[in-house]
């Protein structure tokens, strides 16, 4: 069985080769889960086959399946109780120091069983899928102790098999210092390196290792130490860098050969240049900027002008960006960081695929790539970003099959 999408008003291929990556009045032919042919106008007879399902996408816009390349998918609880504190201006780091923030989610996550965590995460994956996300990166880091981190990573591994959305896992034990190691960052680092990470590697539970490099969490020196050891153990590197203070996280990402650096609201000019030179993808999270209420967004335009590849993600997490919907994030990226709708779509497809090392399989509409596609009930790309707060997705195609139709999962 195959699938044809025809008469699409716009196909945003997210490749550099075809006219800015946009085809008008286009078609896509899919066979065996892969993209077989792309073109404009009438489909040549020789390419049609009687067993093929046809979707008429007249008046609609087709993009690659969205890739949410930075999420904290598996966790327990929620943190709406912090809203009054946020409204009265208590900074995030202060909420964390008083046992709130990440640490309250750690308590909630430790209490849940793997099945309970999966039930909660499955609901999020359903939401992501009906809003157009076909691949998601999922970080651990709300368990922190051995059993809880493994429980979360196993939950993600099982969901990857059970759910249509593909999940790429990251170990982020270095998300906060757990209460058991308060004041002993070195002890906690060595516990991760010696006790947790070898087990994760052996059991194929995560491909990447991530770290929260920030004032009051892990210093640049501590981050460098943990990144070096993670690399030696065979993990690819990611880093939460320069979110609140310009510590030098962008520079460190480049120095350590990280695949991506995330947040970067306070990145220095040197950090931007180093990231461009070392081909580090910047993962920007404008939903989190909005949620932190500081009015500060990452300097996306400056990064783009300096040759940094910019990806955009939800940062889906219970404290600083509780949304699974990348379409809402598109609007924040546009209005908060002055990115164009086409830059944003690329940031959520091919550039996001680079941020998780999947650029050869997904992220663009090219012959031979996986047929992960979104058909938006939208006459053009600008409209998706402009008309915000609703779900524009008409259909989601995953591996050549329709998995969501008009907001309903198949
Ligand atoms: Zn994060």
Weakly predicted, low-confidence segments: none
Rg from alpha-carbon coordinates: 21 Å
Could you name the CATH topology of the largest domain?
TIM Barrel
- Architecture (CATH level 2) name of the largest domain: Alpha-Beta Barrel
Number of helices: 15
The CATH class of the largest domain, by name, is Alpha Beta
Number of strands: 17
Apparent shape: globular
Q: How would you classify the helix and strand content by structural class?
A: alpha/beta
Mean pLDDT across the residues is 94
Helix content bin: 25-40%
Bound small-molecule species: zinc ion
Task: Provide the number of structural domains.
Answer: 2
Write structural notes for this entry.
The chain has 410 residues and is of the alpha/beta class. It folds into two domains: 2-65 and 364-409, Urease, subunit C, domain 1 (Roll); 66-355, Alpha-Beta Barrel (TIM Barrel), CATH 3.20.20.140. It is 36% helix and 24% strand. It contains 15 helices and 17 strands. The strands form two sheets. Strands 1, 2, 3, 4, 5, 14, 15, 16 and 17 form a nine-stranded mixed β-sheet that branches. Strand 2 (22-31) and strand 3 (34-40) form a beta hairpin. The longest helix has 18 residues, at 185-202. It is globular, with a radius of gyration of 21 Å. The mean pLDDT is 94. The protein binds zinc ion. Zinc ion binds next to loops.
